[in-house]
Amino acid sequence: MITEPPHSEAIEQPDTDVEALIREARRRARRRRARAVLALIMVLSLVVVGVALTRAPQHSGSATEAPQPSSVLGVPSVALKQPTALAVSGSGVLYIVDPTRDQILRRLPDGRFAVVAGNGHAGFSGDGGPATHAALRLTGASDIAVGHHGTVYFTDTGNNVVRSVRPDGRIETIAGNGHHVSPNVNAPYLAGSRPALSAELQDPSSVAFGPGGKLYIAAQDVIALSRDGSISYFAGPTRPGFSQQSRLIDGTPVDITFDRAGDMFAASFPWLMERTATGRIVFLGDGFRSGGSSGSGSGILASSPNGTVFEGYGNADGIINMLVHPTTVPNGTVMSTRGLKRVISPKLLNRVLGTRGNIQNGFGPSGLAVAANGTIYTDTDRGYWSSRSALVEITPRGNVHTLWTSH
Q1: How confident is the model at residue 52 (pLDDT cuts 50, 70, 90)?
Q2: Closest CA to 252 of 280, 222, 291
Q3: What is the pLDDT of residue 41?
Q4: DSSP string for 290-357
Q5: How many Å apart are CA 81 and CA 340, to the nearest integer?
Q6: Over the chain, what is the mean pLDDT?
Q7: Angstrom distance (rounded) from CA 181 to CA 213
Q8: Are the C-beta atoms of 218 and 254 separated by less than 8 Å?
Q9: Short-list 271, 300, 314, CA closest to 376
Q10: pTM for the full predicted model
């Protein structure tokens, strides 16, 4: 009978323990090697990043200099020549009509100006293509507005049309057939509604958003452009059967805007009038004129995004008021200051322009726009009252900042 040696388990156990210890030692060695390799990779990565940062170009300038926004990099800029009509988008971008350049510009965050529409040559072309390749025929009466989604609308006054620039940069004509109405001859009254592109517009001079989200166009009459591409009469002098007093304007409305209640305010040199949301016409005063280049232009109007109406007028002393509760006056009476709130002292605007010899230059507003944060933008054109042009912003606290002046 074969028997196992006594204590055989006690004899074999030490060999098993040694093998287990060897295997554990090998596992630990592999872990150490893996950690060492990982650490080496991390060190090499840091070295590469450090070398890249060392070789990166360094920017000169003071410690407070703001970096150039990435959205501005590579955008070609142009020189502003003659700012007239102004508009501000919901995001705070300032748009400018420059009739001397026959271009629509926008102000970049770094203070330069870039082209939104117009190739710089007077004419009519470009529908369906890039707006910067299109030919425009802008005048000092051309106006501009910006929609909620960033589409820019403007009156291409010299071509008797209204055009738009979509956010993708494409331009198209949205109202007017481009036919030129003979001077001193009224454009046909718009009975009912018709396709906007078939209508004859006479010197379209203003665009503004109003009731129903429609775009309203001042072009002898005030007409409403619906989203379906049709236009209809809203107010103005050509409607048959109306007495002279009940017509909106004894002439051509050159600037319009709307308040939060849907009332329309209209300027027609030298009057300021109001059409209430119920259709009643009220006279707000004579003497609503502004400086511009000759001192004989109409006053200007603008609304803030919350529907507060502002007016700008004056020749040698530019006045900007908020229309809180404008006072109705009899026909032919000079405007009343009751119900108006002065925004800025004329002297502060005049200081922007300096003097011409011993005579203080006068700031006669020719453009006006109000941003959502309450900042007001206005400009003036050199001419009879001033030897310089300027574009300024007025903060909600009443501080005046010069954005641009001519030499």
Answers
A1: very low
A2: 222
A3: 63
A4: E-TTTS-EEPEEEE-TTS-EEEEEBSSB-EEEEESSPPP--TTPBPP-TTEEEEE-HHHHHHHH-EET
A5: 33
A6: 82
A7: 29
A8: yes
A9: 300
A10: 0.79
pLDDT digits (tens, 9 = 90+) for 207-225: 999 999 999 999 888 999 9
Q: Residue 211 burial by CB count (10 A; 0-12/13-18/19+): exposed, middle or buried?
A: middle
pLDDT digits (tens, 9 = 90+) for 231-262: 998 887 766 655 444 455 555 788 999 999 99
Q: How far apart are CA 364 and CA 381, in angstroms?
A: 8
Pair type for strands 309-313 and 319-323: antiparallel
Measure the CA–CA gap between 17 and 298, rounded to whole angstroms. 104
Residue found by looking up tokens 């970049």 in the block = 108
Compute the C-alpha angle 118/353/399, nearest 5°. 90
- Degrees, nearest 5: CA angle 23-24-28: 120
**Amino acid type, 396:** P
Q: How far apart (Å, rounded) are the C-alpha atoms in residues 376 and 394?
A: 5
Kindly indicate the confidence band of residue 185, based on its pLDDT and cuts at 50, 70 and 90. Answer: low
